[in-house]
Amino acid sequence: MSDNIGNRIAARAKELQDPMIAFLRDIVAARGLSGQEEACVRRVAREMEAVGFDEVQIDPLGNVLGRIGNGPRVFAFDAHMDTVDVGDLTQWHCDPFVGKVEDGKVFGRGSVDQKAGMAGMVYAGKIMKEMGLLDGCQVWMTGTVMEEDCDGLCWHYILNEKRLAPELVVSTEPTNLRINRGQRGRMEIRVRVKGRSCHGSMPHLGDNAIYKIAPAIGAIEKLNERLKDDAFLGKGTCTISWIGCKTPSLCAVPAEAEFHIDRRLTVGETRESALAEVEAAMKDAGVEAEVFTLTYREKAWTGLEYPMDKYYPTWVLDENHPALQAAQRAFATTANRPAEISRWNFSTNGVAIMGLHGVSCLGFGPGREEIAHMADEYVPIDDVVAACAFYAALPHELMNG
Length: 401
Hints:
With 401 residues, the chain is of the alpha+beta class. It is 35% helix and 23% strand.
C-alpha cells in the first residue's frame, strides 16, 4: 500500500469521527453483562446495515457477524460486547452508561473494554467498501458475547460450529495502539478438601476442613515463586482468589473447604502441567485434596448453553509471521510512524482463536488495557479514529504485501 493510500484512509477515518463516536456512545449506553448483551448486539447490527455491510446475521449464541466483500480469502476482526459491572458508583464522575465526551475522551463502562474497538471496526468496514480495498477477500466484523465471564467461548463456538473459517482474526481489545502478538493463557483451578462435621461446641469430635487447607494455602503461595518465565510473555503465576466452605451451620465444624486458583500460563505451561504442579504441592504439604478445573455453564442471551472447560491456552504469533508484517505496514502507512510490538497482560478471545483452534491471531485496539474494569473507564477519541484507519488498511496489506 502506498503512503498516499494510507494517508487517504487516515483522512477518511478522521472525516467519519463524528458518526463513529456517536455510535460508540450508543453502544456504551446499551449496557449488558455477560449473557445480557442483546440490546448492544442489535444496535451493532443496525449500524452495520446502515453503513452498507453486505451481510449481517446474529448466530444462535447471540454473536453479531457482519460481512463486507465476497472474495475467497477470509479475515475477521473481533470485539466483545459484554462488560463487567460498574462497581461503586460513587467512584464515577459521570453516569457510566451515557458515553460522556470530555477532554477528547469517551467515558463509560465498556468504552475501552471494548466497545471502542467495535466502533472502529464498523466504520473501517465502511471505508474498505468505499475505497475498494476488498479485492480477493471478505472481511467479517464480529461483536461477540460472554467474553468477560468465559473468554474465548464465543470464538470456540464460532470455530467449532463452523460459523466462520478465517485465516486471521484481529482482536480489537485495547493495546494502546500497539500490535500485540500474544498473551499468557489462564485456567481456573479448584482445590477441595474434605473433613468431618460436628457441633461447634465440641470441635474435637470433628475434623475441621478449613484447618486442613491452611498448609495448602501456603503451598500455593510458594508454588507461585517457582513457576516458569518467558522473555516475551512474562512469568506464569498462581494466586488464590477465593476461599469457601460447606458447613451445616455457623455453630458447626465445616465438613468441606475449598479455594480457587487464578493460574496464568506462560509459554510451555499446559493444563496438564499446571494441575500436576498443584497436585504435587498438595502432596508435599501433606494435604489430601481433590484438584480440578471448572466448566462454564451459563445461558447466552439467546437461551443457548454451550459449556466450555475453563482452560484458556497461551498463544503467541511468530514474530516473522506474514500477518504481523502486514500489520506493521498497515500501521506505518496510516499513522506515519513505525509500529510497536507488544503483548497483553490480561486474557482475550485469542485463547480460543489461536490457543484452542490454531487460527492466526493478533491484536490492535484503541486505549490502554490498564483502564479496563476501572471506575471512570475511558477511551481517547483520537485512538478510536487511528484504530479505524488501521483496520481499514490491514486487509489490503494482507492481500498485497
